[in-house]
UniProtKB/TrEMBL annotation:
Residues 13-184 form the Glycosyltransferase 2-like domain. It comes from Equus caballus. Signal peptide: none annotated. This is UDP-GlcNAc:betaGal beta-1,3-N-acetylglucosaminyltransferase like 1. GO terms for molecular function: hexosyltransferase activity.
Amino acid sequence: MEAGGQPAAPHVSVILPVHNAEAWLDECLRSVLQQDFEGSMELSVFNDASKDKSMTIIEKWKVKLEDSGILVVIGGHDSPSPRGVGYSKNQAIAQSSGSYLCFLDSDDAMMPQRVRLQHEAAVRHPTSIIGCQVRREPPNSTERYTRWINQLASDQLLTQVFTSHGPTVVMPTWFCSREWFSHVGPFDEGGQGVPEDLLFFYSHLRKGGGVVRVDQSLLIYRYHPKAATHSVLETTIWTHRVRFLEERALPHWAAFTIWNAGRQGRRLYRSLTAESRRKVVAFCDVDENKIKKGFYSYEDSEERPKPRVPILHFRAARPPFVICVKLLPPRRLCQFTLHQPPSVDAAIKPTVSTDRR
């Protein structure tokens, strides 16, 4: 208790937005109850217009959780339509009081040691987002993406920040201090189709935040057709990613080469601003048919004369490069990597792909 008889603020608030989650809530809330963290915890739930039995399940678990010493705060609304994940997270944070925030999606479940281990890491790294490795359910649903989540080296958590997979530590694994969240946030509340996690992550990086991953599997990360991530269009992710690339990487270069004269390389070129396009000195490729064309003409350009960008054999091209690589089906990934001379800051050497999941 604090002076005056008021209860002390909990160490950790688990932030749980809920929308029509009855199929998963029992497992999710049981995982909160089973945490082995010895500090004080609260669960902050915000119900975003659920029309199923989610609230009945939450009220049932409220009794069990509070009997075990975990305070439960419940908010929400019953409007005809949900307000979205960003809004729900912001509301759950606003009604909570913990010094640290542990984000949890209602279709996922935590391992018992999650809060303890991520809290320890957050204390050591107060301006970082702390993530963790995951166990995907069903196990074979997104094998390449899951490997990417779990196997990035510590330096790649920053060097791969442009990937279309999204943040290099996935949102349901996030843990950070309330103070740092308040410095960076809140989440974008644009609703369905807005990648609020990616936008927050970019803001976090702009403000000098770090990225740390606890290298243990601390979350069951569920894949299913109703997941909110499916509402975000690939074109939306692409646009945000290219703008961030132009903001953070391309200003370091007076000129660069796009490695791939095919569809994805041309798409990147067309997506750039006119200022960035003027820095593209060439495309390069290994395909003789593309090289024989001699140049790429951007017919939709408003510039006169229209840009004509040379297409070179890769041996004739000079760095820095943006390397576009199409991976094999079934994931149909197309990724591009920045490569520049060693003198350029290593923090702008990412990998980017057009498939987020």
